[in-house]
Amino acid sequence: MAQNLPIPVVFVPGRSFFHRLHPLTKLVWAVVAIVMAFATRNPLVLLGMTVLGLAFIAVAGVVPAYGRVMLILFPISLSLIVFQAIAPAFPQPWIPISRLGPFTIYREGIYSGLSLLMRTYAGSTFAVLLVLTTHPSDLFAALQKLGVPHELNFMVSASLQMVPIVQREFQIVLSAQRSRGMRARGFSSVLPSMVPVFAGTIERVQQLAMSLESRAFGSKGVKTSLRESKATATDYVFALLGVVLAGAGTYLVVRYRDLLDWSKVEFLPPWLSVTIVVVAALTFVTFTIALWRQAQQE
Amino acid sequence: MAEFPIEADRLTHVYPGGVQALKTTSLQVQVGEVLGVVGQNGSGKTTLVKHFNGLLRPSSGRLLVMGHDSAGQPVYELARHVGYVFQNPNHQLFSTSVRAELQFGPNNLGLPPAEVQTRVEEAVAFFDLAALLEQHPYRLAFPLRKLVAMASVYAMGPQVFVLDEPTTGQDHEGFNLVRRLVQRLREQQKTVIIVSHDMALLAEVADRLVAMWAAEVIAVGTPREIFADDDVMRRTKLSPPQITQFSRRRWPGQPDHLALTVAEAVSWLNPGH
């Protein structure tokens, strides 16, 4: 049942080094990693970053949760390779290396597809690490210290909390309509299941607003937080380490960008390039069909 | 017609994640019977009744609907025989008029338009909804909305009705309405299964009670038998209706003088009245 898919990116409780790290330190790492990932196209550099991120994920002990995220991200990101291979996001002229039915595969395309894919992983691994090892309240408390308005934090965290509630509500409504003979298929099932879910959600939000007001949500003055996180020397050192590493890395990849630009080099043999494109296309199509059929079955 | 509209045969249910929500349960529900399912929250009541129309499937054992194994029959097929009215009518109603709401179920069953029309008219007559037909279900007061939800299931013409907490959030008038409806369903030889904490309702309308505790059926019997069973009452943390408790103190040691309704107790107090 497609609606039953749990949200994969949620906090996993634990006591690892990364769990104990200050939320802002992890946020710094995620931001600098994304900056550096977008500073280069070189697949090898990006691969190195991804490997470092994976090592962190392993140390944090959140490998299964990370795997669930990748299970969704991986097949979708494969489409990048397929589309880039036949239409590279590069200035023309492109170097054709092979033909695949009506499509021509270009060397720049393979390069561009691979680097976009690796860039996605290099950046998202550190971001996912932050989300998986940080309790949302700690993150919001830390952001508030940085001066992010209390209301904004609350809006984001309240919306996040609504997601599982709405998901469960959707399940109940679907059961109720199936009990009335609905076949839960195609467009005809949208109205009977969506109207009660949205009407219920709007009602719930209105009640939440009243309940918040009656607990002095709009009052002026400094807000305190139940969850206090103090930054230790380790937090500062590790944040600094991230900034220095990524700073140096970014400087180097920009400084030697001509050397690291492999778009005109044959860095993969043509047969391997074609294999990658075909496998990526097949995996992507299989995954899409599997999801579609799963949705049809219910 | 099958001997038992609903028959559970060594049914168990384990939720994904390994929580045993229902231990081995066997149960036969009769034609024209009103069966109350009682127990604390989390005792497995809803898990049990959700098997009756296929919303949940047995982890082991069988569930027969109208004498046929429900395995392999989708919910929309079982819905012909078993109507399930959810606790919150807002989860069921979505149309812009009561009439459209009543047509939804019969249409899903693939009935010809004339038959759908007949079914809707029957439901309107049974639930006395003629004045509300063109109203928007969301604009109706809660008890009426609940009534429309029940009527929308009635229009599908099932043999078995599963009512989940039909009196929750109902005022006294709503309570009486539900009571009368259940009694009339029984007169039509329908089978009604009520999941409820409302002991006063069940004392009046139920033929039998199923008491559940910790994912298990611990007793099945008439309301009198169940309310008189101190062990069951203690374990399920249920308390009999006030009039039943009163009559036990008024006529101690007389099991035949266990009142289920106020009228009953009054008739015993004033035999000539």
Q: What do these coordinates show?
A:
- The complex is a heterodimer of chains A (298) and B (273).
- Chain A contains 11 helices and 2 strands, in the order ααααββααααααα.
- With 298 residues, chain A is mostly helical.
- Chain A folds into 2 domains: 2-135 and 229-297, no CATH class; 149-226, no CATH class.
- Residues 1-5 of chain A have low confidence and may be disordered.
- With 273 residues, chain B is an alpha/beta fold.
- Chain B has 2 domains: 1-79 and 160-172 and 191-224, Rossmann fold; 82-157, no CATH class.
- Chain B has 11 helices and 10 strands.
- Chain B has helices at 45-50, 75-78, 98-108, 113-127, 142-154, 172-187, 199-205, 223-228, 230-236, 242-250, 262-269, and strands spanning 6-14, 20-29, 34-38, 60-65, 68-69, 82-85, 160-164, 191-195, 208-213, 216-221.
- In chain B, helix 3 (98-108) runs parallel beside helix 5 (142-154).
- Chain B is globular.
- The model of chain B has no long low-confidence stretch (mean pLDDT 93).
- The interface between A and B is medium-sized, with 21 and 25 residues.
Please give a quick description of this structure.
The complex is a heterodimer of chains A (298) and B (273). Chain A has 298 residues and is mainly alpha-helical.
Keywords:
heterodimer, A: two-stranded antiparallel sheet, flat, disordered N terminus, B: 273 residues, alpha/beta, Rossmann fold, 2 domains, 6-stranded mixed β-sheet
Task: Supply Rg of chain A.
Answer: 23 Å
CATH topology of the largest domain in chain B: the name is Rossmann fold
What is the H/E string of chain B?
Answer: EEEHEEHEHHHEHEHEEHHHH
Largest sheet of chain B: 6 strands, mixed
CATH architecture of the largest domain in chain B: 3-Layer(aba) Sandwich
Task: Work out the oligomeric state of the chains in this entry.
Answer: heterodimer
Content-based structural category of chain B: alpha/beta
- Beta percentage of chain A is under 5%
Q: Helix count of chain B? A: 11
